Amino acid sequence: MQNILTASGISISYQDKGDLDAPVIILIIGLGAQFTVWPEALYSGLVEKGFRVIRFDNRDAGLSSSLDELGKPSLIKHWLSRRLPLRTHLPYSLDDMARDVKELMNALSIKQAHLVGASMGGMIAQIAAAKYKKRVLSLTTIMSSSSPWSFSGSNINLLIKLAKIQPRNRTKEAEIKYNVRLNQLIGSPAYPQDECALYENANRYSKRAAHNQQGFKRQLAAIAATPYREKLLKKIKAPTLIIHGSADPVIPLEAGINTALIIKRSKLKVVPGMGHDFPPALMKKMTKWIAKHARRASKKLR
Question: Which InterPro entries does the record match to this protein (predicted)?
């Protein structure tokens, strides 16, 4: 694992694996998550299929820059600012996080890359593909959305359940237990994960870096304040693959379908029984889908 300082002064922790001359895939993870949430089976699987694969911690997560000097945002105000003429101070936007991706590429002397984003990472990847067209060879979004986070029956129910299990103290043991329960709640009904494996993953996650609660809120504010991206996404020229689970309790399938309708010539792959996670049983298939999509996109440019 390495760190690099971007032109904007953001220190980014990343992992770079594969032949340096191979086509590049950049994995962009979601809200509050460290890059280790990308399953090793998917990460190494893409390397084995002939790609140079980079995964990294977004600003305010993992071992990348923690921007506490930007303060604690008001999530309600930022959410309302999309609808009302309210003046709010946004620490940073999803556009800033998309620029981090471009600056990471610049720092590593990468001219073009295939972008793969999960959840919030998919939103960041969409913006990067629309704003930096010549730098993006293909786009893959997983369990993501083209619109700001909105309430649905499933995610309201999820929020209620999460509120009930919030740890009263921030001990390591409490955070590990919460992480396990969170992954069970957002997980795939058709592909339930072994509880022991979830505990091992949570323990490994906790050892690498403590959860950045304020950073999580700043990232969430960036999502809340971002307007609907229909006009922006219509500018995307890169071949696009949208992967979405039919049982996603966080970002409903309708969001994936809507994204596919907006981005021209995009392809939608609906995964029956998949939730808002990376089920180990599906990683071989998902690796194949992403690699095939990236190869096809590269061939079209020849």
Answer: AB_hydrolase, AB_hydrolase_1, AB_hydrolase_fold
